[in-house]
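OP here, attaching both records as promised.
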Amino acid sequence: MSDLSMNTAAPAAVLKNEAGVGDFVALLKPRVMSLVVFTGFAGLYLAPGHMHPFLAAVAVLSIAVAAGASGAINMWYDRDIDAVMQRTCERPLPRGRVEPGDALGFGVVLALASVMVMGLAVNYVAAALLTLTILFYVFVYTAWLKRRTPQNIVIGGAAGAFPPMIGWAAATGRVDLASVALFLIIFMWTPPHFWALALVRNSDYARAGVPMLPVVAGDAATKRQIVIYAALLAPTSLSPWWLGVNGWIYLGVAVAMGAAFMALALRLMFDRANKTAMRLFGFSILYLFVLFAAMIADRTILG
């Protein structure tokens, strides 16, 4: 499948107004950033030892800025396909409200600043992981995988799974098995989360030339993969309990949420109209938030 040209024409109703603060905030993908920040904070909170509250805040802020920087660079690179997708055509770059060079410069400056602050104020292990996350998202996922393979989300999803590991490293200065377990939870969660959305936006991705799994393999194969990953996610989500990071409060929540996730995945598999797809997509966001909130609550209550 050939890539779209980077000079694809934007929609006819392009706005030529000068960029405002809100446009640059939109480049940061704030909704995506919020979940990234929350899971990063959870990793920091669950890590053993004590971290000064100010340094903890700096670490979380660095994760947030790095996530936003990655989003801005991603929007710069994907401005051609964003312009032809209904879901993304109102973003600042397709609408002509932000110049491409400004978006790229904005993202690069924020990326460099986030890594420098993390390294100088916190530790170099966390800074190295933060650098890896940005590079992985920009070069491996955005520039390499997204337009070339239906496995783009499976492999590229690793970028979104690093934040709790970064938070853990910020508090401890190392990568432990427990932080890898947190990484794996998000890694397993990412494919069914995005494929549920892709089922709804199938025509959007097809029009843009993005080989998402429903476009390449069809709905039935995508639904089977969603069920497989939901089945893998359920035991993976119990790993914080197995490793002694969390106790019975988290265990109960993880089992209940995993059963609900699996039930929705199975329901989608037999839903020919794909009406369950958007419900699964919405629930998957709630699932990840509740799971990491339960980790924090369990640690706070049980110690």
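Record two, same layout:
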Amino acid sequence: MTLHNAVTRRNLLASALLAFASLAAQATEIRVITSGAFTEAYKKLVPIYEAASGHKVISAFGASIGNAPDAIPSRFARGEKFDLVILSEGGLEALMKDGKLVPGSRVDLARSQIGVAVRKGTPKPDISSVEALKQTLLNAKSVAYSASASGTYLSTELFPKLGIAEQMQKTAKKIMSERVGAVVARGDAELGFQQVSELIYFKELDFVGTLPEAVQQTIFFSSALVQGAEQAEAAKQLVRFFTSAAVADIVRSTGLDPAAK
């Protein structure tokens, strides 16, 4: 990053923070639940927002889809209360259809791609082409994939498309209520597939790369207001902060592409 760009970024962030700082007198608590791929960006951005706005963000975390006890759909089914939800577009649309979210309140925050990782120090497999990826999957003794959006894509679309669905039933495992990276890091799986933003922070892993473009799935992670939200206006302010140009570089640093142009 050049000195000019660094100064520009600091000025953008300073301007954004000044705008949110004017709201401190009306400080309140915002209840947010977010899914895995946006988590690292969220953890970096929320303290900045809290310091500038005076608001307190009460955070919860869970998978975008699935029936694990801590998955976002399960928590809504139990009647847990939130003001804002952040999850994959498929999970969001399902909650919207169920009447859990405010129609028209969806805001796309970031785009995410699926990546592959192995335990640090082990050979990096070839995933440079579709055929290479197929052979790597067939050669692997154990494969771990997410119970959320990326894992659903692998198990229901990618494996069948590659013609290896039957073989992968023997070697691939869906990971519930835990990051795939943790499973690979302790040696319980040879290969791990999950959103890039959820893999790159494990120091015990070597990041291999993203899926070949021909079979890649780019997923939007989006926010929406929850029906009955007590702090809807404050939640909207938080979303505007997440999508502001001032924080785009922070979002990129976590393995995501900002959705806003």
